[in-house]
Amino acid sequence: MNASVQFKPKTRSRSRRVGPVDLLSCIDSIARQGLATLPVDETRTMKAMAYRLSRLRSRACTEIGELMHPAPANGTAHPVQPWGWCDLLETPTTRCGVLTVFRGQPIPLHDHPGSHGVVLVLAGAAAIRQYDLVEPQTRERQDGLVHLARVGDRIHREGDTSWFGPRHGNAHRVDARTPICVLLELMVNPYPWSERAWYFPAVREKHDQEVILARRVLPRGQQRRPA
Q1: DSSP 187-221
Q2: Does residue 181 form part of some domain?
Q3: 7 within some domain
Q4: What was the pLDDT predicted at 143?
Q5: CA 159, 165, 171: angle at the middle one, nearest 5?
Q6: Containing structural domain, residue 173
């Protein structure tokens, strides 16, 4: 298995499984139970999913260790995409994979439109900062600037989890605090990669700033046309 698979648009026409069948069956079970109870209580469901996924950490490290990115030999990550992603499971309702991030090469702020997800740290540590979109997308300014409110900001270590929903912490930034950080990400109702947006602060962000102004960048081909 080539562990350097990059983020690319994926089709969801069929299910795909890569990795130990028993482990993926457990992950799929967590996702299915989550889907069944999400309409009743989002917060309780996501916390339960996070807890159940965290119980699989040791097993995941043992069984899918070969899918984790090796540290770059020269101390720098890939010049085009400085993080790695390996698919483990993808169905029309579930996506799970291994995400590798390197210190000094953070994943910029991005969203997960319409999706619920859990992130589990398998190895290393990462600072995960989460935001909510303050203004509905229908009120997005013509210049592409939006306001984002910070709702989470802490360092996650091995075994720690974080979760997001369509209206809770849906946009996040991941910054490795160790030379290499490996995370397991599980999403239900996954979005097409082509619909994800990136957010870049319009002004230098202060450490204690609760609301930031950022430029929302859509995938190529979906940029807003001038009015």
Answers
A1: EESPPPGGG--EEEESSPPPTT-SEEEEEEEPPTT
A2: yes
A3: no
A4: 66
A5: 85
A6: 16-217
In-domain check, residue 138 = yes
Predicted pLDDT of residue 4 = 34
Q: Tell me, what's the pLDDT at 141?
A: 55
pLDDT < 70 regions, the chain: 1-21, 65-81, 135-143, 207, 220-227
Residue with token string 């967590």: 30
50 in a domain, yes or no? yes
In sequence order, the 6+-apart residues with CB closer than 8 A to the CB of 29 are none
Element (H, E) at 63: helix 57-63
Tell me if the pTM is above 0.90: no
CATH of the domain at 26: 2.60.120.10
pLDDT at 7: 31
By the 8 A CB rule, do 202 and 217 touch? no
Task: Please say whether the dihedral angle defined by the alpha carbons of residues 136, 141, 143 and 147, taken in this order, is positive or negative.
Answer: negative
Single-letter amino acid code for the residue at 77: A
Distance of alpha carbon 136 from alpha carbon 2, whole angstroms: 40
Q: Please state the domain count of the chain.
A: 1
Measured N-to-C along each axis, helices 21-37 and 42-54 cross at an angle, to the nearest 10 degrees, of 170
What's the pLDDT score for residue 123? 93
